Amino acid sequence: MASYDFDIGVLGGGSAGLTVAAGSAQLGAKTLLIDKEGRLGGDCLHYGCIPSKTLIRTAHVYHLMKRAADFGLPDVEMKPIDFRNVSGRIKSVISKIQDHDSVERFCGLGARVEFGEPAFIDEHSVRLNRQTYSAKNWVIATGSSPLIPQVEGLDVTSYLTNREIFYLERLPSSLIIFGGGPIGIEMAQAFNRLGTKITVIQRSGQILPKEDKDMADQVMVVLKREGIRFHLNASIVSAQELGNERAVVVRTDDRATVTLKAETILVATGRKPNIEGLGLDMIGVAFDDKGVKVDERMRTSQKHIYAAGDVNGGYLFTHAAGYEGGIVVSNAIFHLPRRADYTFLPWCTYTDPELASIGMNETAAKKAGIEYSTWTEEFRANDRSLAEGEETGKIKMILNEKETPIGVQIFGPHAGELVNEWVAVFNGGVKLSRLLSAVHPYPTISEINKKVAANFFSKKIFSDKVKKGLKFFFNLRGRACGV
Ligand SMILES: Cc1cc2nc3c(=O)[nH]c(=O)nc-3n(C[C@H](O)[C@H](O)[C@H](O)COP(=O)(O)OP(=O)(O)OC[C@H]3O[C@@H](n4cnc5c(N)ncnc54)[C@H](O)[C@@H]3O)c2cc1C
C-alpha cells in the first residue's frame, strides 16, 4: 500500500478548510492545513461576514441615534464619522475571533499548519515552499474572490472590493455600487447610513435576484426611503478615472445612457473560484468558471480529492462551507458515504430589516411545477415589533398541495434569528399544528412564526362548517353583537 506524509491535506484555512482540519485532526487523522495568506480564518473572518456584520451594527447604532426622537428621546447632535474608528472596531472584533482560528489552536488539535502557495505536482502531492507534501486525501477549500466584470476603462480606474472596503482611512462621500446582490445591498445600506451617497447599478429587474420579487422589492422600498438610488435593468458601459472622482456610464432600461459620478466604486458583481495556480489541470480535477466540480459527497473527478466551500461554486455561505466540510470528514475520515442535502439550507441578507429564507420560495416552487399556497403575517401586527419601533416587513410561508410547509421567507427585524425556528421545524419534521400549539413567550417577535401558522389553521378552525357542527352538538347561539 502506498504511504503518504499525511492522511489528509487541506488547501485553504477558511470556513470549509478549518472545519475539515479541526474534524480530521480531532479524529486522529494526520492532518496538514495550508493557507496562502499567512493567517487563518479566510474571507468570512477578514473580508466578509465578520467585518460586514460589524460595520452593519455600527451603521445601525448611528441610524438609531439619528432617530432618537422616534423613541421619545432628545435629538442627538450628530458628528461626522471618522472611518478609522469604525475600521478599528472591525479589526478588534476580528482579532477576538482570530484567537479561535489561530495556528496554536489548530496545532493543539493536532493539525500541522503551513503558509504559502501550494501547487499539485501529482494526484497525491503538492509542492509548497520548495518542499513536497503528500497526502492520501486532499481537500480544495480555497474559497472565492470578487469577479471583476469586463467594463471598458475599469482596468485603469480605481475601485474597491470586499477586500478593501472595511479598511478605508476615510468614509467616501459617494459610492457607486456595481451589483445588487447581498454584498452590494448590505454595503449600500450600511454606508448610506454612515453618510455616503449611494447609487446601486443592478443588471436584472430586481435587487437580491435569488429572492422572490415581492420580498426583494420590500427591501428596496426601505433602502429607497433611506435615500439610496437604484438603476435596475441597467448595464455598465464604461468607467473612467477623473482625478478626485470616478465616472460610470450606465445604459438604463429605456436604452438611454446616463453618466454617474462618485468618489469611488464598489464592485460586487459576483464571485469566482480561487483555483489559479493550484495545477488542477495537471492532475485531472475538473472545473469550470463557477468552480471545481463535485458530486454530492464533495468528491471531485479525482475521488480522493474533495472540494468544499465557495470554491465548488455551490451555495456561497459560511454555513454551507462548514456543512460541506463536515460532509468531507464523514466521507474521507469515517468512510461513511454521506451526501449533501441543501433542501433546507437557510440564508439571510443582513439589511435592516433582515431578509431570511429557508426551503422553496415561490419562484422555486413555480419552477418545480408545485401547486402551492402562501400564508403571510405582517410585523406591524406583532406587539413586540411595535414596542421596538420595528414595524416593517412580513413573513411568508409556502405550503404544497398537501398543506405541508415547503419554505418560509421573512423580511423583518431579526429575520436571521427567526428563521432558526423554521430550521428546527423543517429538519425535525415538526408538524405545523405542533408549532401552532407550542407556547411562545409574550411579547416576542418570534411569535410571528406561530401566527403565520395560525393564519393557515384559522381558516379551517373558524369555518362555517365547524361553527355549524358546534351549534348542532352544543347548542351554541351565535353572535352577541352586530349582524
Ligand atoms: C462582504 C461579504 C459578506 C459576507 N457575509 C456573509 C454572511 O453574512 N453569512 C455567510 O454565511 N456568508 C457570508 N459571506 C460569504 C462567506 O464569506 C463565504 O461563503 C465563506 O467565507 C466561504 O468559505 P470558504 O472556506 O469556502 O472560503 P474562505 O473563507 O474564503 O477561505 C478560503 C481560504 O483559502 C485561502 N486560499 C486561497 N487561495 C489559496 C491557495 N491557492 N492556496 C492556499 N490557500 C488559498 C484563502 O487565503 C482563505 O483563507 C460573505 C462574503 C462577503 C465577501
Quick structural gist:
The chain is α/β, with parallel strands linked by helices.
Topology:
Elements: E1 6-11, H1 15-26, E2 31-35, H2 42-46, H3 49-66, H4 83-100, H5 103-109, E3 111-115, E4 119-122, E5 125-128, E6 131-140, E7 144-146, E8 174-178, H6 182-194, E9 197-201, H7 213-225, E10 229-231, E11 235-242, E12 245-251, E13 257-262, E14 264-267, E15 271-273, H8 280-283, E16 305-307, H9 318-332, E17 347-349, E18 354-359, H10 362-367, E19 372-378, H11 383-388, E20 394-400, E21 405-412, H12 415-427, H13 432-437, H14 447-461, H15 464-474
Parallel strand pairs: 1-2, 1-6, 2-3, 6-16, 8-9, 8-14, 9-10
Antiparallel strand pairs: 4-5, 5-6, 7-15, 11-12, 12-13, 17-18, 18-21, 19-20, 20-21
Helix pairs in contact: 1-9, 3-4, 3-6
Description of the molecule:
The structure is a single chain. The termini are far apart. A hairpin with a 2-residue loop joins strand 5 and strand 6. It contains 15 helices and 21 strands. It is an alpha/beta fold and 483 residues long. The strands form five sheets. Strands 1, 2, 3, 4, 5, 6 and 16 form a seven-stranded mixed beta sheet that branches. Helices cover 34% and strands 23% of the residues. The protein is globular and about 90 Å long. The structure holds flavin-adenine dinucleotide. Residues 11-17, 34-37, 42-44, 47-49, 52-53, 117-118, 141-143, 162, 183, 274, 277-278, 309-311, 316-319, 321, 350 line the site of flavin-adenine dinucleotide (FAD). Flavin-adenine dinucleotide is lined by residues 11-17, 34-37, 42-44, 47-49, 52-53, 117-118, 141-143, 162, 183, 274, 277-278, 309-311, 316-319, 321, 350.
